[in-house]
Design a protein that fits this description.
Helix 2 runs parallel beside helix 9 and helix 2 packs across helix 12. Helix content is 76%, strand content 0%. The protein has 424 residues and is an all-alpha fold. The C terminus is likely disordered.
């Protein structure tokens, strides 16, 4: 036991993941006995999301020197996520056109299930982002209205000034410290949660549907790998003068954690610590970009939407034209921006995609069967993109601490210790 507690936290997480896979293979369906442990861990992470986002986002905004500086950071990050999401969707379409996973699919072998959906309207989706009840957004974890509302509150405080609101500014800073400390406490149990989640996933996921959709999975993962090894390195080298290999060595704890939980929102606490302690990004930037990116920056899902669209079009004998490809890529951007950063959102948005393209929903059960497997890679790419964009914005605004970036890699346990020390 002493040996275990001497290990760094990220080492414990990797060990927990390996043991979870082994336990899942050995226990199979009986691995469900571990599900309560994994669900407790996920509930604790979700418990953190709303107060952590409000505290860190408001703290990050208030550390900006002016509304203009906030607009500068926000505009750069939004431009980054828009361009990368478009490219990711295009890569997904390209890989699906290359492999054509939907050709020859026997739809009669798939049992259709009823999926509740509604017609897609970009105008309605845009309106849904505007908060009409801040407390309702908190209770329903509606992240985009919550983020927009928090930013508006912070801008109002910034315009009034700390001289007139000293107690409220102090409360925001102290509240952020409390949330970061609480985050550190919950992250300490992550090896046990990761063990349980992976054991249940491996033990209960069937292989029949996966075998039927092997080409789909290959196209999806290939698109994700292309984005990771082509797009982000080009962005980092061109706009931030950051060595991509150094970035990946620094960012990997967040990527692994995201792949384990399949939740961008649940990975926000880890990404914030990695941004500060490994990448050298100040809180005023990562406090804005990381929570916003966890909701709006879904490059992995954009890749999947591109693959799904061509997969479904082939399966239902829809003629693939240049106009359809452009429509698919733009839908990939719009739907990925609106996809919630939580597990399972992809199935609902896939149903919306099918409705927008005028396709039946018969493929939804197949997607639901394989989604837990492919979503691992999606979430890992999403979080990697958040951190790449965060580092790029910090570099462009001359706020990146390259001494920290070029220092030896800091693991999760060490970032916890450093965060605790900074609060004392």
């Amino acid at each position: 036991m002493k040996w275990w507690f001497r290990q760094k936290l990220h080492t414990q997480v990797v060990i927990g993941a390996v043991l979870g896979i082994i336990a899942g293979i050995a226990l199979r369906e009986n691995a469900m006995i571990l599900d309560p442990i994994g669900q407790i861990f996920l509930r604790l992470l979700k418990f953190l999301v709303v107060p952590l986002v409000i505290a860190t986002l408001m703290s990050g905004v208030l550390q900006m020197r002016s509304v203009g500086e906030l607009g500068n950071v926000g505009a750069r990050f939004f431009a980054y996520l828009t361009v990368t999401s478009l490219i990711a969707s295009a890569f997904g379409v390209g890989m699906a056109l290359l492999l054509r996973p939907g050709q020859g699919l026997d739809l009669a072998s798939i049992d259709a299930e009823e999926v509740e959906t509604e017609d897609f309207s970009f105008a309605e989706q845009l309106l849904s982002w505007v908060p009409d009840n801040f407390f309702l957004a908190m209770s329903e974890t509606s992240m985009i209205p919550l983020i927009i509302g928090t930013i508006l509150f912070a801008i109002a405080m910034m315009l009034i000034g700390e001289e007139r609101l000293p107690r409220i500014f102090a409360m925001v800073r102290e509240g952020t410290e409390v949330m970061l400390k609480l985050t550190n406490m919950i992250i300490q149990v992550s090896p046990y949660g990761v063990f349980a989640l992976l054991a249940v996933l491996v033990g209960t996921t069937g292989t029949e549907m996966l075998e039927a959709a092997t080409k789909f999975v290959v196209a999806d993962v290939a698109g994700i790998l292309l984005v990771a090894v082509v797009v982000y390195p080009c962005v980092l080298m061109t706009f931030a003068r950051i060595n991509p290999l150094r970035f990946y060595r620094k960012a990997w704890p967040s990527t692994i954690f995201a792949m384990t939980t399949s939740s961008s929102a649940a990975t926000i606490p880890v990404s914030m610590r990695i941004a500060q302690d490994n990448l050298g990004v100040p809180r005023k930037i990562y406090g804005f970009t990381v929570p916003f990116g966890a909701t709006a920056n879904m490059d992995g899902f954009a890749v999947a939407l591109g693959v799904i669209s061509i997969f479904a079009a082939d399966a239902f004998d829809m003629k693939i034209t240049a106009g359809l490809i452009v429509q698919i890529i733009l839908l990939g951007l719009a739907l990925s921006l609106g996809a919630a950063g939580v597990r399972g959102a992809g199935i609902v948005m896939s149903a919306v995609l099918f409705e927008a393209l005028g396709l039946p929903l018969d493929l939804i059960p197949l997607l639901a069967a394989i989604w837990p497997i492919i979503d691992v890679a999606h979430t890992g790419l999403n979080i990697t993109s958040d951190l790449a964009g965060t580092a790029t914005v910090a570099a462009q605004t001359q706020e990146l601490d390259r001494r920290i970036l070029n220092a030896p890699t800091v693991g999760m346990h060490q970032t916890t210790a450093k965060s605790d020390a900074s609060q004392q």
